[in-house]
């Protein structure tokens, strides 16, 4: 991404898109004050409404059963999506492709669904706007950067649960990834890339150059350590510089890193994500902080910087919802990559022309 003179001026930036991740699948409902982790279907829908009213226009969707456990049933997701479409029609509904990574019973591993079952996310009805996807099988140790203070008094203090999250991996081999993107696109669902490092971004670019991923490059840099990049300025700058100008980039991290990284994103003209899936504390750890309060905090910061918050329709335009491409050439051009090299071409290539 280029940062020309004036790129930090709010009049030259897109409005801010806030993604809310309020369903906190790694936490037990009792880990936060009552109501902050919604359990019943009515509570899950009301949480989406509250997040939208606070300023979020993208909803990262996980679902729970009535007993509080994370749901592995796609029928439960269908029910939730149907109710969300009525309750928050302007929100971009983004189903988390890791929908059941939380262990179901004490001592069990934190496993994602099987490859075949995850493909069924493309069959959800009503269709979500997006499904997130990981690239390249990778370690996903979500507790590596967490401190004792981060998990104090929560269910993750339990050694068996802590180990389950520590040993978690993401299954995302190339054959499965390409087929998953094909199925999502065929059903009009946008792929949202959740990328852990620059090498995964390079894999996405290669897929686009081969014509097997003809979609907008809407992505999140997930800087949580444990097999992912750490949220430091060097990793951030290196990743952002590699992202092409036509992409839409959101930043994501965990716990007390969330607010500083999101503040950087707001200043840089990028986009933000917050919620109990990412953090549960105020910055001084004096109290637990729910998703709505986190959204309201980012709205205040963005307003101080005179960067307006995108409404639902503006977020859909920025995220290019409903946009798909017919060829590798069109994909490269729309996302701001250089074109593929033609036979006999020498030297550096200019950016692809739309």
TrEMBL record:
InterPro entries attached here?
A: Aldolase_TIM, BKACE
The cross-references to Gene3D superfamilies, in alphabetical order and at most eight, read: Aldolase class I
Q: Name one Pfam family in it.
A: BKACE
Which keywords belong to this entry? Metal-binding, Transferase, Zinc
Could you say which cofactors this protein requires?
A: Zn(2+)
Protein name per its UniProtKB record: 3-keto-5-aminohexanoate cleavage protein
Q: Can you name the source organism?
A: Acidimangrovimonas pyrenivorans
């Amino acid at each position: 991404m280029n940062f020309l003179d004036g790129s930090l001026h709010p009049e030259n930036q897109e409005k801010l898109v806030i993604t809310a991740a309020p369903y906190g699948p790694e936490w037990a409902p009792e880990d936060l004050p009552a109501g902050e982790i919604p359990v019943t279907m009515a509570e899950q829908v009301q949480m989406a409404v509250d997040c939208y009213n606070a300023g979020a226009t993208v909803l990262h969707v996980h679902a729970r059963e009535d007993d509080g456990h994370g749901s592995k049933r796609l029928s439960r997701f269908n029910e939730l999506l149907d109710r969300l479409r009525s309750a928050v029609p302007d929100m971009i509904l983004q189903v988390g492709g890791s929908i059941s990574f939380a262990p179901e019973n004490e001592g069990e591993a934190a496993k994602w669904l099987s490859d075949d079952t995850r493909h069924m996310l493309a069959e959800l009805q009503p269709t979500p706007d997006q499904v997130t996807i990981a690239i390249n099988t990778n370690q996903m140790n979500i507790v590596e950067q967490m401190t004792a203070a981060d998990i104090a008094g929560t269910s993750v203090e339990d050694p068996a649960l802590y180990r389950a999250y520590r040993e978690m991996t993401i299954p995302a081999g190339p054959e499965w990834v390409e087929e998953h993107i094909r199925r999502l696109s065929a059903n009009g669902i946008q792929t949202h890339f959740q990328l852990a490092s620059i090498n995964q971004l390079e894999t996405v670019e290669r897929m686009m150059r081969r014509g097997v991923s003809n979609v907008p490059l809407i992505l999140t840099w997930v800087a949580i350590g444990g097999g992912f990049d750490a949220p430091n300025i060097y990793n951030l700058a290196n990743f952002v510089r590699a992202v092409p100008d036509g992409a839409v980039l959101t930043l994501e991290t965990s716990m007390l890193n969330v607010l500083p990284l999101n503040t950087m994103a707001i200043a840089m003209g990028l986009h933000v994500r917050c919620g109990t899936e990412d953090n549960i504390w105020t910055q001084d750890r004096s109290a637990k902080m729910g998703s709505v309060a986190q959204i309201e905090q980012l709205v205040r910061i963005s307003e101080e910087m005179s960067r307006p918050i995108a409404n639902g329709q503006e977020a859909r335009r920025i995220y290019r919802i409903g946009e798909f491409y017919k060829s590798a050439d069109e994909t490269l051009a729309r996302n701001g990559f250089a074109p593929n090299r033609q036979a006999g071409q020498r030297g550096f290539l200019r950016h692809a022309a739309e």
